[in-house]
Specification:
Blueprint: H1 21-30, E1 36-41, E2 44-50, E3 53-57, H2 66-73, E4 77-93, E5 100-105, H3 114-119, E6 131-141
Parallel strand pairs: 3-4, 4-6
Antiparallel strand pairs: 1-2, 2-3, 4-5
Length: 142
């Protein structure tokens, strides 16, 4: 049986209900007045459409959207917004009371050079004239 996301007549999306707070925050930060959000283009749901540019927020591995990008780049300018957690605080919440039990700073610190590790998964995209990458250093709570 084919899932709805695999059917060619259905757009592929995780949906805004499943959207992480980081993804939603980056989308709100990047969107300008007049931009359209969550628009279907070539059977894919695009985070932001600004004129002739499609803007995709990717908070995890770039390889996860490789096929989507390859298809979109044939006919569209695509900018990928890729966050790197420069500082991350880990928040522990008691599941019964929903109260913060502990908060600590993660020992891992992201650096701009981390983008090269991400790009290893999509090496051919860098030579595409319609592709651009915006790396954002973030401070996050998880």
């Amino acid at each position: 049986m084919t899932s709805a996301d695999e059917r060619p007549d259905r757009p592929r999306t995780i949906g805004v209900l499943n959207e992480s707070s980081l993804h939603a925050s980056l989308k709100a930060w990047r969107a300008l007045p007049g931009d359209a959000t969550e628009v279907v283009v070539d059977q894919f749901v695009i985070d932001i459409v600004r004129g002739d540019t499609l803007i995709e927020i990717q908070t995890s591995n770039l390889g996860a959207i490789r096929a989507k990008l390859q298809r979109l780049l044939r006919q569209h300018k695509v900018q990928v917004v890729f966050p790197i957690a420069q500082v991350k605080h880990l928040i522990y919440v008691d599941p019964t009371s929903n109260e913060v039990v502990r908060r600590r700073k993660s020992p891992r610190h992201g650096h701009i050079a981390d983008v090269f590790e991400a790009l290893v998964r999509v090496p051919t995209l860098m030579r595409e004239p319609n592709f651009s990458l915006l790396v954002v250093l973030t401070q996050e709570e998880e």
